[in-house]
Specification:
Blueprint lengths: L4 H17 L12 H9 L15 E9 L5 E10 L2 E6 L9 E4 L4 E4 L1 E6 L37 H8 L2 E6 L7 E9 L17 E5 L2 H6 L8 H30 L12 H10 L4 E6 L2 H14 L3 E6 L7 H7 L2 E4 L17 H7 L3 E4 L10 H14 L6 H4 L5 H7 L16 E4 L10 E6 L2 E5 L23
Parallel strand pairs: 1-4, 1-5, 6-7, 9-10, 10-11, 11-12, 12-13
Antiparallel strand pairs: 1-2, 2-3, 5-14, 7-8, 8-9, 14-15, 15-16
Helix pairs in contact: 1-5, 5-6, 9-10
């Protein structure tokens, strides 16, 4: 991830001025070692405190293995050690003291990554007290962060884990032109959202096209698609000016002008400027192909990159453009027709995008759908084959792992079964593209966090304690 120097400068400025205002020369911090003081000043607020759970050395032996990047081993072994993938291949030797799991007749895959979830911000049980995903008070709310709404005790996280989901991006909703920051989480039990935050994952920023902002803001604007675009562009112009002011201040400080005055922080523009700096990835709710191309032109106008179009039911119409622009599409297998902008959706959307060489992803946008994303991918795979698009199951798994990791900027850490990557791994009791198959064991950073055959290894939210037993969690 690129260094956001102007944002770091603003954080340092606040930290230093705050100490001065409170007589920090007499404080313990002031007498601390310079290295410790520097670390305290540069550690960002709301930083990840995630630490992998304790893990064993485990050899999954004799499974059919999808490596997550399109390859398959018919009789493969996967070695997990120190929380990482240590080796993948045939006839691996178990290190001394390793736990050997007989996976004969079973399948091993990378953990599923859902790039579009609202778990924690629309937690279960549903209701207005739990509705924390849309700050629908203004068309542009780039200042809000989804993680500040995430309730880590949402029972949905455990249900998703049982479906093989090891990481996910939680986004604000799609009421606004700019909905705010999204956060990538490891799917682990935690008291705090900071304890779930994926280490070093870049932030995302949620934006929305089309009908949703038009409907929500019709009485006060924007009321049309042209109004939507005017709203985006006005915000980008402001963000350009904000970024330029911080760039100018940073240069002055670097040139030794210690009396340079730092610009005033603006939380909304800070996030937008983070996109312009390349530090924050744009995730844009957009259905129509023509509208996606308009967004790509806007990105060129303001020199930023769109990472992924979400829902994207018409990506098949512009798949070659998305391929050439290196933009992912996060799609449903068969949701379409529920509003006018989704009317031209087709069941072959995902395989057609894949066939064109563009980045295709299966996403949920649902607390139910996230529990069986493997089956959603299976539907898309079958619909592609009916249309004459023959894609292997190993290739199709990239829709759930590698491509999703790429979308979130974490593909250097997870998404494939390659030595050195996080041991986010699922052992399935059969073909993961079968409706009869369920996840048997789920490992996150090598730690066994779900075991369908061990009642003590089934997740149970604090919220559920005293209401359900582990035996009730299927």
């Amino acid at each position: 991830m690129k260094s956001n120097n102007w944002l770091l400068a603003s954080a340092l400025m606040i930290g230093v001025s705050g100490c001065a205002a409170n007589g920090a020369a007499d404080s313990p911090a002031a007498s601390a070692a310079p290295e410790a003081l520097e670390m305290a000043q540069t550690t960002p607020a709301f930083a990840s405190t995630y630490k992998p759970f304790p893990s064993k050395t485990v050899l999954l032996k004799g499974a059919r293995v999808f490596d997550g990047k399109g390859g398959m081993f018919e009789q493969g072994d996967v070695l997990l050690k120190d929380g990482k993938i240590a080796a993948v291949g045939a006839n691996l030797e178990a290190p001394a003291g390793a736990e050997v799991v007989n996976a004969s007749g079973k399948w091993v895959t990378p953990g599923i990554i859902d790039v579009h979830s609202h778990l924690g911000v629309y937690p279960s049980p549903g209701g207005s007290p739990h509705s924390d995903g849309n700050e629908a008070t203004a068309p542009v709310t780039a200042e809000v962060w989804a993680e500040h709404s995430v309730w880590p005790h949402d029972p949905g996280f455990g249900r998703a884990l049982a479906g093989g989901v090891t990481s996910m991006q939680v986004l604000p909703g799609s009421a606004n032109l700019v909905g705010g920051r999204a956060v990538t989480l490891k799917n682990v039990p935690s008291r705090t959202v900071q304890g779930m935050k994926f280490p070093d994952a870049p932030y995302g920023m949620k934006m929305a096209c089309g009908e949703n902002p038009k409907r929500v803001y019709r009485s006060r604007g924007p009321a049309t698609r042209m109004g939507n675009f005017a709203g985006y562009r006005t915000s980008w112009i402001k963000a350009q000016g904000y970024k330029e002011s911080w760039d100018k201040y940073e240069k002055a400080m670097a040139d030794g002008k210690k009396d340079a005055k730092a610009p005033k922080r603006d939380l909304e523009l800070e996030t937008l400027a983070g996109v312009l700096s390349g530090d924050i990835i744009v995730h844009m709710h957009c259905y129509r192909g023509d509208e996606m191309v308009q967004v790509l032109d806007m990105a060129k106008e303001f020199n930023y990159k769109v990472g992924t179009f979400h829902h994207a039911v018409e990506s098949y119409k512009i798949a070659d453009i998305l391929r050439d622009e290196d933009v992912c599409s996060a799609m449903w297998a068969d949701w379409w027709g529920f509003k006018m902008e989704s009317y031209d959706g087709i069941r072959e959307n995902i395989p057609f995008v894949h066939k064109a060489g563009a980045c295709a992803i299966v996403h949920s946008d649902s607390d139910i759908g996230i529990q069986h994303l493997n089956q959603e991918a299976a539907k898309a795979l079958a619909d592609g084959k009916k249309a004459g698009v023959n894609i292997s199951k190993a290739e199709a798994w990239t829709w759930l792992s590698l491509n999703a990791a790429k979308s979130l900027g974490i593909d250097d850490q997870t998404g494939t079964l390659e030595p050195g990557k996080m041991a986010d791994v699922v052992l399935w009791d059969g073909d993961p593209f079968s409706v009869y198959t369920r996840a048997e064991k789920v490992y996150v950073d090598g730690a066994l966090l779900y075991d369908r055959n061990d009642i003590e290894q089934k997740p149970l939210s604090d919220f559920e304690l005293g209401q359900v037993g582990r035996g009730d969690v299927k």
